């Protein structure tokens, strides 16, 4: 009788451990899939970040070039103004 009860509890217990093991394996597989998905999204994010950084650098470079052009135009205008006023020394300095 005791062996029978122990056998029944053992069967139920082993069965529960088996089902827990199966659940663990399915959850582990799901976590592996999530990890792979996360890594791919992370790579996509890094690529997009690099693209944005490159575009930002291009914008900064263009902005600097435009600032330089503006400075040249301003100096040219100041030089022409000095020449019109016959202020040759200021024109040469500019």
Can you describe what's shown?
- It contains two helices and no strands.
- It has 94 residues and is mainly α.
- The radius of gyration is 38 Å and the shape is rod-shaped.
Terminal Cα span: 112 Å
DSSP summary: helix tally: 2
* Low-pLDDT stretches: none
- Average pLDDT level: 88
- Over the alpha carbons, how many angstroms does the gyration radius reach? 38 Å
User: How would you sum up the global shape?
Assistant: rod-shaped
Strand content: under 5%
Tell me the helix content. over 70%
Could you give the order of the helices and strands? HH
Largest sheet: none
Question: What features would you highlight for this structure?
Answer:
94 residues; mainly alpha; 2 helices; 0% strand; rod-shaped
Compact summary:
Helix content is 95%, strand content 0%.
Topology readout:
Blueprint: H1 2-84, H2 88-93
């Amino acid at each position: 009788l005791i062996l029978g009860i122990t056998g029944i509890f053992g069967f139920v217990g082993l069965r529960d451990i088996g089902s827990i093991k199966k659940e663990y394996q399915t959850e582990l597989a799901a976590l592996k899939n999530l990890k792979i998905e996360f890594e791919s999204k992370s790579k996509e994010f890094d690529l997009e970040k690099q693209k944005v950084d490159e575009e930002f650098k291009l914008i900064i470079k263009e902005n600097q070039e435009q600032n330089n052009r503006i400075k040249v135009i301003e100096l040219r205008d100041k030089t022409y103004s000095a020449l019109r006023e016959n202020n040759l020394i200021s024109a040469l300095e500019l």
